[in-house]
Design brief:
By secondary structure, the chain is of the alpha/beta class. It contains 17 helices and 20 strands. The structure holds 1-O-alpha-D-glucopyranosyl-D-fructose (TEU) and calcium ion (CA).
Length: 547
């Protein structure tokens, strides 16, 4: 296993709109990030990933880009960007930008030109059809082909209709993208997280697939297209190779068996991918708002399968939540009586599976899902589109509202709770762009910073342990008692050491711990103040080193 800085690093994802507002307009911004760099350095993370900060009409909060080489006016300007980058580097951290090149905004000048008609030089920057291909569903509801009156044809948009898909078959599009990447690389950024990168090569004939099974459509039609790996290798050669940077591809629709095509070391494509299996365990066939139960066995199975499939050849990035999913403690833990314990348990898991961990902003203070009282409080277009569609179809809106509370993307997008003052100290404005979670008086950064055994210091400690014990990074991984419905137990080992991880994903007290007698091992960290050898209490987690 080759050793590199990005395998040893820990990512911290910032969703700038909700991180910290520095100028009182209710919207997080670069000034806010600059204010909090010491906080992040103190936590001990290495690599900051910023969700998009480029010029955008914000149909999808910056994932619809109208100018790739300018900073979103609401977030600041290029001078502030440079100040931020310098501040990050001065503190020994690195910066990873979000690269959203499957699609642009419809307000990008390329699309504005492209619409003008078949003779326009930008026509082939996007994907146009005279006849509408049938049955292509969009991620955000409705169909993926939209009629454009100005040009009299249909264009493809896998996401919102304000996010037209770029035509990667066109070499000019690819050159534009690589040039834009070099613009940021020359400024000194340290890498890219690539939005829905498996989707850039299209299958424009409609392969045989079950029309009602959206995940299948994603895997077999939208992702892993015929020229994908050619494009990724070209991108590596033409844009990335001269720089010492790293890349993480967001990889929905990529099954474990295809993983090494993306991240196999010899392939020279991407360094890592975010794999998605666990993110869909509690989705029914109807998708995100079709609630289903998940179970620990299947959850463990996802990580096991990826570990086995990649072997010593490829690397992943581990995430348990991000800006598109519910908060990790609410989804995989218990955000009621055992919020602290389960948040710490999940921190252990996140930081000790094999792969580069990605911490989502707010996890380190134990932030939870939110249940905002009215649909008018919601901002995410996916949520709002689902609502409009359900209303039109006369579906059960109470049931949908429950599902929104449980699964909606705005759960992860409420402002970071900095303290117990008005608006959680996120902004001095009367109203932030989206409401603050009402639990902020109890759950906030000031509170965890003042409490020595808090979730924050637990993360800090784990981050140090990960640096101290590189076995947690490079060591082999083996699940123990994989069929256990409540216990997630595993072993990590190499020539430098051997570690046993015991995580109780339930309130049931577990009395039989598999593996060597724990009394004979050294306790490295645990989420209870003491250890009762034979028992793993509710949501208890302990890590042992064999001596
Ligand atoms: O997400 C793509 C993706 O597949 C999701 O996780 C998606 O949000 C979900 O499946 C929808 O149900 C990326 C970004 O992370 C997301 O925020 C963007 O909205 C999306 O791409 C489009 O750029
Ligand atoms: Ca602001």
């Amino acid at each position: 296993m080759t050793k590199t800085w990005w395998k040893e690093a820990v990512i911290y994802q910032i969703y700038p709109r909700s991180f910290k507002d520095s100028n009182g307009d209710g919207i997080g911004d670069l000034g806010g990030i600059i204010e909090k760099l010491d906080y992040l350095a103190d936590l001990g993370v290495d690599l900051l990933w910023l969700s998009p900060i480029y010029q955008s009409p914000n149909d999808d909060n910056g994932y619809d880009i109208s100018d790739y080489q300018d900073i979103m006016t609401e977030f600041g300007n290029m001078a502030q960007f440079e100040e931020m980058l310098e501040g990050i580097h001065q503190r020994g951290m690195k910066l990873m930008m979000d690269l959203v090149v499957n699609h642009s905004s419809d307000e990008h000048h390329w699309f504005q030109e492209s619409r003008k008609g078949p003779d326009n030089p930008y026509r082939d920057y996007y994907i146009w059809r005279k006849e509408k291909p049938e049955r292509w569903p969009s991620f955000f509801g409705g169909e993926a082909w939209e009629y454009d009156a100005l040009s009299g044809e249909y264009y493809l948009h896998l996401f919102s209709k304000k996010q037209p898909d770029l035509n990667w078959e066109n070499p000019k599009v690819r050159e534009e993208v690589y040039e834009m990447m070099r613009f940021w690389l020359d400024k000194g950024v340290d890498g890219f997280r690539m939005d829905v990168i498996p989707f850039i090569s299209k299958r424009l004939h409609w392969p045989e697939v079950d029309w009602n099974d959206f995940p299948k459509i994603v895997e077999e039609v939208y992702a892993n297209g015929p020229r994908l790996h050619e494009f990724l290798q070209e991108m590596k050669r033409k844009a990335l190779a001269p720089y010492d940077v790293t890349t993480v591809g967001e990889a929905p629709g990529v099954p474990p068996a295809l993983g090494n095509l993306y991240v196999g070391e010899s392939r020279k494509e991407l360094d890592m991918i975010f794999h998605f299996g666990h993110m869909f365990l509690d989705w029914g066939p109807g998708g995100r708002f079709d609630l289903a139960d998940w179970d620990l066995k299947a959850f463990k199975g996802v990580f096991n399968e990826w570990y086995t499939a990649l072997g010593e050849e490829g690397w992943v990035s581990i995430f348990l939540d991000n800006h598109d999913f519910p908060r990790l403690v609410s989804r995989w833990g218990n955000d009621g009586d055992y919020r602290e314990e389960s948040a710490k348990l999940l921190a252990i898991l996140l930081l000790s599976l094999r792969g580069t961990p990605s911490i989502y902003q707010g996890s380190e203070i134990g932030m939870t899902n939110v249940a905002l009282p009215s649909i008018d409080d919601y901002r995410d277009l996916e949520t709002l589109n689902a609502w409009t569609e359900a209303k039109e179809k006369g579906e059960d809106l109470d049931q949908l509202f429950l599902a929104i509370h449980q699964q909606g993307r705005d759960n992860a997008r409420t402002p970071i709770q900095w303290d117990d003052s008005a608006q959680a100290g996120f902004t001095t404005a009367k109203e932030p762009w989206i409401k603050v979670n009402p639990n902020y008086p109890a759950i906030n950064a000031a509170a965890v910073l003042a409490k020595p055994d808090s979730i924050f210091y637990f993360y800090q400690k784990l981050l140090r342990l990960r640096k101290q014990y590189l076995t947690w990074v490079y060591g082999e991984y083996e699940m123990i008692d994989g069929n256990h419905p409540e216990l997630y137990a595993y072993r990590r080992w190499d020539e430098d050491g051997e570690f046993y991880f015991y995580l109780n994903f339930s309130e049931t007290e577990l009395t039989e711990l598999p593996g060597p007698p724990v009394e004979e091992m050294e306790l490295i960290i645990g989420n209870y103040p003491d250890q009762e050898y034979a028992h793993l209490r509710a949501w208890e987690a302990r890590v042992y080193r064999r001596v």
